[in-house]
Amino acid sequence: MEFRLPELGEGVAEGELVKWRVKVGDTVKDDQPLCEVMTDKATIEIPSHFSGTVVELVAKEGDIVKVNQLMLKGEAAGGSSQAVSKPAEAPKAAAPAPATAPAQKPAGATAAAAPVPAMNARPSADVLASPSTRKLAREIGVDLGVVPATGPHGRVLREDVERVSKGGAPMAARGPARPYNGGPAAPDERTPIRGMRKKISEKMRQSKDKAAHFTYVEEADATELVRLRTQAKAIAEARGIKLTYLPFILKAMVAACRKHPKVNSIYDEATNELVTRHYFNIAISVQTEDGLTVPVVKNVEQKTIFEIAQNIADLVDRARHKRLTMDDLTGSSITLTNAGSIGGLFATPIINYPEVAILGFNKIARKPVVVTRNGAETIEIRDWTYFSISMNHQLLDGADAAEFLKTFITYIENPATLFLEDL
Predict the structure, then answer these.
(1) Beta bridge partners of 361
(2) Which helix (DSSP H) or strand (DSSP E) does residue 372 occupy?
(3) What are the pLDDT digits (tens) for 49-101?
(4) Pair 1, 73: CB distance under 8 Å
């Protein structure tokens, strides 16, 4: 029998095979996860549509597989060789589920050594691991090729390396790393660009190729926003809600977009039209272990501050646990990127194409500023921040950015007005 890539969703013609969840000789059951495939929207889990034995894995991890392309050959239960005719169900969002098995205790290990996932040694260059994890492994003399991986998609984590260094698995034959004494540098590392990072790379290149970027920056007095959020935070905590600044920012974006609707648009390249949306689906950037993803808060204008906070918390949690659906990642009309928790004054964000604008929210810091009241100038300590908006200059002008940001900052500096309008 043959297993082919099923339909992955409307408009999705192909995906990258990130990970096989089975191997040749395995017995599989109907609806059992076979593999994980990443599209330009999300990583999804592909279930089996037969019960039987895996005979051959035709597609390899890292391959770009098109819908209906042959991926696996197998023998159906009972020895039938007929192709499976069961229609494909909608793929489920992938959730990491690495199989684990107790490892044999190495010589000299104590009885308390924890069981670790079984894994055959492989070349270190083929191992999925972050640069910091690779650096740690070099420094303490652990061969990544023999480290059992517990991270998503077979990624080796820092904890895996540390476990090995404490006797949880074999150490590198070369022994502990020596302090640097001016000798030859370590060899170059080569990290395959695949999975989430590959999709991010493709999306960023597409945006830069198809949109003429320009960025406009303005500062804002966020003192009243900080005060309002502090007051509301206590109420939110009593209801079990984590309240950040983001719900207020999203509400202010809606208010400003109502007055400058072209900013809440996408570009339809096929018809060469600017499509202005009169609903407000705002994508938010979320940093995950595999890279940046942008789930969408739908219909912001219809939700309260607390409802938006709950929506954001749910999206962030599911993004970091790889449980987002295709619907979570589609339909946005403008994006908010937030690097304020990391730091920096401002950035020049890249447009989430085919949208035409992306707003950057940066850190809030206290500093002395000159305040004019009744013609008199005084110096006060205020909460200050910067906002940066990137737009597609093919479709919007510098004045559009300046006017939008001016209106937006009015709501940031006077956040109580957000509750006086139909937002």
Answers:
(1) 338, 387
(2) strand 365-373
(3) 889 999 999 999 989 999 999 999 999 887 654 444 343 444 444 443 334 33
(4) yes
Classify strands 2-4 and 70-76 as parallel, antiparallel or unpaired: antiparallel
Going from the C-alpha of 239 to that of each of 64, 134, 243, the distances in angstroms are 46, 42, 10
Alpha carbon distances (Å) from 276 to 232, 257, 283, 284, 422: 33, 10, 16, 19, 19
Q: Would you say how long the chain is, in residues?
A: 423
Active-site hit among 49, 213, 278, 393: 393
The predicted pLDDT at position 337 comes to: 95
Q: Which helix (H) or strand (E) holds 373?
A: strand 365-373
CA distances from 359 to 63, 110, 350 (A): 35, 54, 9
> pLDDT for 346-368, tens place per residue?
889 999 999 999 999 999 999 99
Determine the average pLDDT of the residues in 382-406.
96
Structure tokens at 248: 């207020």
CA distance 351 to 285: 12
Distance, in Å, from the CA atom of 265 to the CA atom of 325, rounded to the nearest integer, reads 23
Average pLDDT over residues 257-276: 95
153-198 residue pLDDT tens: 577 888 888 888 877 544 444 444 444 455 677 888 888 887 778 8
- Distance in angstroms (rounded) separating the CA atoms of residues 206 and 22: 34
Q: How far is CA 197 from CA 8, 93, 115, 193, 348, in A?
A: 20, 18, 31, 6, 20
Instruction: For residue 321, indicate whether it is catalytic.
Output: no
Torsion of CA 68, 74, 75, 77, to 10 degrees: -80
Beta-carbon count within 10 A of 392 CB: 22
